[in-house]
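Reviewer comment 2.1 asked that we show a complete input and output for one of the modelled complexes. We chose the beta-D-mannopyranose case, as it is the one discussed in the main text.
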Amino acid sequence: MSKVKIIADAIKNIPWEDKPSGYHAPVWRHSQNPIIDRNPAKGISRIFNSAVVSYGETFIGVFRAETIDGRPHLHLGYSDDALSWSIEEVGIDFVDETGKAFQPNYAYDPRLLKIEDTYYIIWCTDFYGASIGVAKTTDFKTFVRLENPFLPFNRNGVLFPRKINGNYVMLSRPSDSGHTPFGDIFLSESPDLVYWGKHRHVMSKGGYGWWQNVKIGGGPAPIETSEGWLMFYHGVTGTCNGFVYSMGAVLLDLDNPSIVKYRSKNFVLTPEESYETTGFVDNVIFPCATLHDGETGKIAIYYGAADTRVGLAYTTVDEIVNYVKATSETVADDATVGRM
Ligand code: BMA
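Response of the prediction step:
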């Protein structure tokens, strides 16, 4: 039993492998990675940066599928073990709140989570440029897309899995129209998922290490723990061959999540395996989802690898929280409420 508590339901059939002996880092890879490789379904050349949830005794995912015309769409997938996925060949159909078609021009980097009885998909959508799309479903058959919550340009929209002080809370990363060479994580609140405000700065790029010195962006929906909101995120550095994306971990204040409590100065996963270092875009680890077990503290992290495949990695809440605390640094004014 873990000492740090995950405040969430149990997932009895969470995929799991123990940490290999002799391995020192706090996050370890699934031995059969990638769990989704190239050409996973007819008409889809690559799946990566995707999100999954447990659904009864099984699992459902919303996948970033690059179809054979090279454009990204959201496709559903189903699994009994959260490892082997059957992906739908046809993308999700979205309607607006009156039932009329409301289909995104493109859609990528989905996050998926349940708040109360409703599942929400948040993704990067086209709203006169990259911005954030939100849709809801209760049955994974009808998907109602809400009004665009934020102005362009913005990416990496991540909803918290419950209201905080009565409001929904969304992380985002204001961007530009291209391959954004800057960026910090902010949050916004809403009473109804329609009107958003009370914007706060959460955390800055930078710090002592160089791995997150260009930009950062939210990852999976934060995990509520007895030590704060545990959030995995991506941090980006620049090289003469382009960006390198690694994964970091941070603990945010439970009641006031624009305050960073602890933030590891080290990456917790960086591109090393060939399926991460070589692909459509080399050297990318881009986490978008976790499964986490409120009973045992096990955490399974789903990440896009090299914009080509889906990888899976594991940690436990005790291991990662203790690591983040032991290696914490304060960057810029992360520890403040972020209301400059
Ligand atoms: C970002 C997003 C991600 C992608 C990453 C690396 O800007 O577009 O979808 O994984 O670049 O190419």
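Residues 49, 108-109, 179, 245, 281, 284, 286, 304, 307 surround beta-D-mannopyranose (CB under 6 Å). We note this here for comparison with the apo prediction described in Section 3.2.
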